[in-house]
Amino acid sequence: MYTLHINGKDYEATEDKKLLRFLRDDLHLTATKDGCSEGACGTCTVLIDGKKVKACVPKLSTLEGKNILTVEGIPEEEMKIYEHCFAEAGAVQCGFCIPGMIISAKSLLDVNLNPTRADVKKAIRGNLCRCTGYKKIEDAILMAADFFREKLEIPAPPTTLHMNEHFKRIDAAEKVNGTGIFADDIYMPGMLYAKCLYSKYPRAQINKITIKKALAHPDCVKILLKKDVPCNKIGHIKQDWDVLLGEGDITKYVGNALAVVASTKQKSLQEILDLIEVDYTELTPLTSPYEALKGDAPLIHEDGNIMSRANLVRGNADEAIKNSKYVVTRKYKTSWQEHGFMEPECCVALPEGEDGLLIYTTSQSIYDVQRECAQMLQLPAEKVHCHAPLVGGGFGGKEDMSVQQYAALMAWYTKKPVKVKYSRQESLNYHVKRHPMEMEFTTACDENGKLTAMKGVIIADTGAYASLGGPVLHRACTHAAGPYNYQNIDIFGMSVYTNNVVSGAYRGFGVTQSCFATEMNINLLAEMAGLDPWEIRRRNAIKPGDILPNGQTADPNTNMEACLDAVKDIYYANPYAGIACGFKNAGTGMGKKDIGRVLLSIEEGKIHIRTSASCMGQGIGQMTLTEICHVTGLNPELFVFEHADTIRTPDSGTSTASRQTVMTGEAARRAGEKLKCALDSGKTIADLEGQEFFGEYSAQTDPLGAIKENPVSHISYSYGTQVIILNEEGKITKAVSAFDVGTPVNIQSVEGQIEGGMVMGIGYGVTEEFKCENGYPTSKFGTIGFMRADAAPELDVILCVPKEEDKLPYSLGAKGCGELCMIPTAPACAHAYYRLDGKFRQSLPLKDTYYRKKK
Fold it and tell me: Quick one: pLDDT band at residue 706, thresholds 50, 70, 90?
């Protein structure tokens, strides 16, 4: 028996377990998050006798007689200061890391109310964040120090809200004080825990699966095999993903599940799995696209090893290159990248009604979860009710199913609540990654440095399943020529199945890879033409009325030139500054159905904002609230933003392709206009009790290869330039982004997205490396190279807002920024190092740098 003093109360424990498990599983103090259980991420940080400690490390037996404080134990008046400062500074995005950050902040401010930024960086060094880039968290802690030191009063909230303003996010407080619920925070009476048995090999024939010993385990409730799955093929776009593999099947990667076990105790799951006996015949895996393309290669899928092709041809690239003064051809290679969202994948499923299911899940679209789980169980979609708690980051990595299908399947069979959660290592090993790509690009210009043509070949490794590999390849091709004004283009791409970890959606969606190749080629052309890298980009920058390389006419809101002009001085002022440009579509486009929907309902005097648009941290609630308040003039305090729910909220599509600000933002504006019309007729909110106001927006675009002079591939584009500055040692000291993302919705949110994207992009370029060797992922969460606060450089964001008369005619002029913010970063890093040491690097992550020394 152990006695623990937690938040001023004594608790008794009969079992010596990790403190984190006791806090969460026994006491349900869920503000202390489980991000890795490896001591690496800091989401479980608590104070023990005033010192910050990661709760996943110590056992209860070491803590008797000590005072333990979690976020729930911080006094209310003190917490109000943290809530205000973190919201005011824009420090809260997905929120999963924030309670741990609060504890680390308190450990500093309890002893030092005059901290420097360096003090703050040191204090939060043990806390990872993948959303913010740390700057606004540091700002929040420094602001809190001012409030505590000067005993400042929290100001009253404004009663109006408009576009392009600073305003505290609608969802900030619950993420700061820890009351917001994520999927893993859900506990239910009689809940079972389930876990999958995964393949031992990336490619092997399964001869026999024996579960007799596992079934005899006293905690085992149920074991499900392939024969128990009504429909065994699911998939986000292409239905090629096996739910379970069985005897006689050949595994496609180490993430293939062979069985699902359910237990009454979470700690017993691995014991049960270890009792399942599997007889394999190991086979040689295909671990590169080139192996998979060989004539004698075995088929990974019945329809072949080429998952997708893309081809974009405009003008006559061969002729233009032949007649060009300067031509450069280079090969480039990029590798996997791990999303590293702070919340591991988790799902809780339970019976609902006589023959339905209720699924609580972390995902980027509850309607995608509903569709795929209904398909697997062969149920009508309306029988699968999906609800989204808070989502702790996504960046594309939560578009595909991961654990949802197994929770749903086990709940369907057992008729009990079931929780399935990836461990952090399982998340690393089995969920999708950024696509590795190998590229050969030829780029040409005339004697004045005007770009004339480009040709490119892109080979992408999509891994074992399609995932989002098709659209990712399309974006890599359609954006490959960059945000410049030339029209002779010939790009061919293939996405190839291998036995590697699956590649899928990732912030930037293929454009990060092709942008790297094009921007590097442009640097070489600049040298040939006797121009500097800023000047060649300025001469070729797309402007309103010009034709993009993909054939689309640039809209009046195009502000690429202003982005370059904004960084001109800082680029020329630093000898080791690297520069790169990028652009990114908003919306799925390419002729696909793309609809945003928002429903406003007046309930008990409050206006409920209802949309399924998934918020993984980007601020969907604040975005829709701002659009509506801007057109109605109503007090933001009147509104309630509901979590996505397939019964309550209309389908607004997947949170992907930087689409929600434009698509759902315009739907919100339209719903707001209808509400305003009702109010303008002389009615009050009370008069409108029970009424609903629906907004919908559908984007009309043209498919890839449309036979039109100027096809509209996407409804809008955002543009930007980044500058990366090194010191003489090669350390990145500053990153500057000048971006055209239209009219900012919420200034803190836009800046925070861009700052976080820059740091993630620096990771992609220089510090992070995810390894998959011979089909086996070998990376650990703590050693991938995620940038921490004390290593993050100074970040500067410049917003280049188009003129009022030129702004996008949708969503009050706002455009997406969530992906663009990391697209130019890696090539800007490469260019900075080229200026430092003269080495032209053609692969990512960059080798032989301050961060990755030559071995």
Answer: confident
